[in-house]
Amino acid sequence: MFQKEVLELCNSLIKGNFKSIRHIDVSNNRGLVSDDGKRSYKPKFPLEKLKEERSDVTLVADFPSPWSVKHYPVCHEEDDEELRKIEMMEDDASSSDEESSEDDASSSDEESSEDDLG
């Protein structure tokens, strides 16, 4: 992504264009490319002006330096399948917990109504 493009987008938002936009995330682990072709990790945008003119817009621009980025290995298909199984087990467990808490609540209601009667 080019720094110039993000700057043009900010200026367009300030002018009142793109009224439906509420959130923009231009974050990139590789920084932004400046006009001279170098990567920039601390670009300058007219954020104060944007905040004044379009307080309804949130602009996220996180450009961590290359030496601070942690790289994680990409999962394989087998790992994805294992994660799906774990998620399904967690979903089953949480739904059974909800059912048991509903049963407990209904039995305590019955007990309290019996106490009221007698």
Detailed description of the structure:
By secondary structure, this protein is mostly helical. The chain has 2 domains: 3-68, no CATH class; 72-118. The chain is built from 3 helices and 4 strands. The protein has helices spanning 3-14, 47-53, 77-117, and strands at residues 23-25, 32-33, 39-40, 58-60. The protein has a two-stranded parallel sheet. β2 and β3 form a beta hairpin. α1 runs parallel beside α2. It is flat. The relative contact order is 0.12. The mean pLDDT is 76.
Which features would summarize this protein structure in a list?
2 domains, flat, 4 strands, single chain, 3 helices, mainly alpha, two-stranded antiparallel sheet, two-stranded parallel sheet, 8% strand, 118 residues
Shape: flat
Low-confidence spans: none
Q: N-to-C terminal Cα separation, in Å? A: 75 Å
How many β-strand runs? 4
User: How many strands, which pairing sense, and closed or not: the largest β-sheet?
Assistant: 2 strands, parallel
Structural class category? mainly alpha
Order of helices and strands: HEEEHEH
SS summary, helix count: 3
The amount of helix comes to: 40-55%
Portion of residues in beta strands equals: 5-15%
